[in-house]
Amino acid sequence: MATNDDAAVVQHTRKEFPAPPSLESLNERLQSLSIDDPLPVYTDSNPTLNPVDIYRCYIAHHLAPITGVDISLVYPALEWTQTLDKGDLIVAAPRLRIKGRKPDELAKEWAEKFPENPYTERPRADGTFMRFYFKNGVLNNLVLSSILKRKENYGPINTGKGKRVIVEFSSPNIAKPFHAGHLRSTIIGGFLANLHESCGWDTIRMNYLGDWGKQFGILGVGFKRFGSEEELVKDPIHHLFNVYVKINQIISEEKAEEKEKADAAGEKQAYNGPTDDEAREFFARMEAGDTDAVALWKRFRELSIEKYKDTYSRLNISYDVYSGESQVSKEAMDTVTRLMTEKGVSEESEGAVIVNFVKHGAKNLGKAIVKKKDGTSLYLTRDIGAAMERYEKYKFDKMIYVVACQQNLHLQQLFKILGMLDFEWASKCQHVNFGMVLGMSTRKGEVVFLDDILQEAKERMHEVMKKNEDKYAQVEDPEFISDTVGRTGVMIQDMSGKRINNYKFEMDRMTSFEGDTGPYLQYAHTRLCSIMRKANVPLDKIENADLTLLTEPHATNLVRCLAQYPDVLQQTLKTLEPTTVVTYLFKMTHLLSSSYTVLHVLSSEENVMHTRLALYESARIVLNNGMKLLGLTPVERM
After folding, report:
1. In 285-311, which positions are buried (b, 16+ CB within 10 angstroms) versus exposed (e)?
2. What is the pTM of this model?
3. What is the mean pLDDT of residues 314-319?
């Protein structure tokens, strides 16, 4: 972990994508299933990593000549379905762009012409759709053997090979509250970084701290009056916040007094009091590089980062770099100012420098100040400089800003200016926005720090666990379990709906085992672990089980669902919606739950037991993989 961009460039190492199985080994497996013809592989497919792509390749290869449409149109038209009753893959006839024929007639004709084969049942024509259902014998073998062999590597496809992404997320302001927006940015950003990294992207996790500005002048003055060296070292974030609140109170009181004086004299207020002056002077010393002022600021920053690291680790989040506003160089800011002037992007207006987006064809973006009358640059200018320096240092292929929707206008203005400055990488910047958390409070009152949320979730979860005395007595480490399951509840509630939607912060709901909650996912994982423990069968017997014995509809549907996981991840890379993965995991665990009463393990014959254990172990692997991708820690007992 680096505390500045220069160090991050030197220290960063790319996580290598695990070597995929060979096409030869896949064809050998197909031969063992009495499929002698080698699989015809489409250029953009990944059949050795994604079992469903095996079917796409086969279907596209045969459907192209039947339809008379090039395979480059047929292959991407084969889409996965949201519910298994609608098939495993579908083709909408209009997607193939054949003119002069009714789509429903085409679908029926193509379904009748599609050959008998070992992969799929005869396709069904349903209106304008062709629906393909996979034959369970081949599917069971291809899917479960792939999961059991690849284990934690099952799911991701190396679509990010040779590409680098920066994910900027969380980005709290030092000495200020860690509000709901930071919570959502932390959870969503952590997931997006995991997703890209798992799919082969060289991923830079960046925390862009609010670590510069007049508030540090206020904090410097406040620390002189109210600071405690002991408290600073012990808990820097809380202590600096308390100092900031106290000194701000004094500034507010002095400002109010000065306003009364100005009002009494019939004058416009021009002075905010001595403490405000002192704070301005302290920050001016920082900007001028005063040794003592900068040294104190550095201590605040470094101690805060150490504390942040502890808190983020509870969410399984680490950063490659703690960057920040302070890291943007004066040279970059000067370059921004010069380029905006030279390219006619900015203009003077009443002593200030602005960008009038209306003149540049973007009426909806209005106007933005980039330099105040007194010559100080604003947040937007600093963000332009930061983006410039990041590209120079990291040469990213994509940069994602995970920031609340309240900042939509700011990010749109930023991206527009980058485009007007003719940076060819401007189009590689992306804003992933999200809605608000409503009513985020704990028993102690309004939430100020992330630690408060996690502690409250842990305590509530502990209370829920204690209600079942028998189970609670069997838990080896109730502190760890309540902490892990509690934060799972917080994170799953945040990721259950679409990002842009607001949601109500409900601690009782998020710590419940009823419904689609974080604790329910953890329960599903522990139940699978329990089945494996009680069966106590060596893993090699499970991995070599006779998968032709899985004939029950419950087993077939579960395998069909497990096959979809790689597609789910690829779809999520397009939408950048955590709920895509969360919804899939709940769908899969619901299928699991309904299977237990049908697919018994301990009471079944040995060979059937091994087969069903192969199914349940595969489900556990996929659930474990999905939970870790979301930033969760799956527990084995609770």
Report:
1. bbeeeeeebeebbeebbebbbebbeeb
2. 0.93
3. 91
